[in-house]
Structures are given as C-alpha cells and as structure tokens.
Amino acid sequence: MCGEQxxxxxxxxxxxxxxxxxxLRIIAFGILRDWELAEVVVDQTVVDVLxxxxxxxxxxxxxxxxxxxxxxRALNRRKSEARRGAVHVSIDEEQPSSLPxxxxxxxxxxxxxxxxxxxxxxAALRKALASLTRKQGEVWDRLCQGMxxxxxxxxxxxxxxxxxxxxxxxxxxxRQFFVDVRxxx
Length: 185
Prior knowledge:
Helix content is about 85%, strand content about 0%. The chain is mostly helical and about 180 residues long. Residues about 85-105 have low confidence and may be disordered. The chain contains eight helices and no strands. It has a domain at about 1-90: Orthogonal Bundle (Rna Polymerase Sigma Factor, Chain: A), CATH 1.10.1740.
C-alpha cells in the first residue's frame, strides 16, 4: 500500500509540474523581474522538489507546494542578488589584467546592451501587466503572494472556478507577452 501511495503522489507531482510550469515561471518572474533567472529558479526548485519526493494527495496541494517552493526560492535569490548588488566593484577589478583594453570595452558594451534589453523587457512586462483587467490583476497579486485558490476566492468573494478562469486568462495574456519578447530579442 505504501508503494502505491508513493507512486500516486509522484504521478500527482509530475502532473502538477507539467500543468503549472508556466504559472511557476510567471510567479518567479514577478518577484525577480528577470526572465532567465526566473527560469533557473523554477528549474532548480523542480529538481529539489523531485528529490524530496513530498507526499501530496491532490493536484491543488501539489500546486500550492510548488508555488510556495518557487516563491521562497525566488525571494531568497532576490535577497542574495540585492546583497551582492550592494558591493561596488570597479571595472578594473572585474576584468583580469591580461585582457586587452578592446575586450574590456566590448564587455562593458555587452553589459550596457544587456542592461538596455532588461529595461525593455521590464517596460514590456509593465505594459502587459497594465493590460490585465482589474479582476485579473487582483488574482495576479495574490498568486504572486503564494496564496492558494481557496484563499483568493474567499478574499475576493468569488468561486474557486472563477479564480482558476481568471488565472488562466491572465497566464495566456502573459504567455503571449513572453512569446513577443522572445521573438523581438
């Protein structure tokens, strides 16, 4: 019986990962504001969760577990990035002295291009988030806080099905945003 429960729990977790992967990435992106870093955080979290083999009895519990794990990891990553960002290093200290000045200037140019690209992505995300309806925005804010469907439904005074429908529509809208951003870069 115990092996049967473990197999069922693994199947539920696998289905949750497949079904909610986009939602997890969007939540991580909402915290980190960096798409590539969000993907790394979600991938690391999924690997850790699969190693832990938690006992989950329903798809919703698996979703909540994954959302909390991604949210915690993303918040920890943001804190560590902020701590690292507080230390100022000059360009001379960053670059090995053996590099010719041309390579150093190319590196600085690449950093400037990357920073500009990130600003454009953030502006596009703000635009995409601004395009959400008020109701979708309410759900988005609460999902980013790691709330589950029942808590969101209770807080907003709507049904769990309405929360799921709003989440699905906002994910579709944000997914289209990510497709557009990837195609433009």
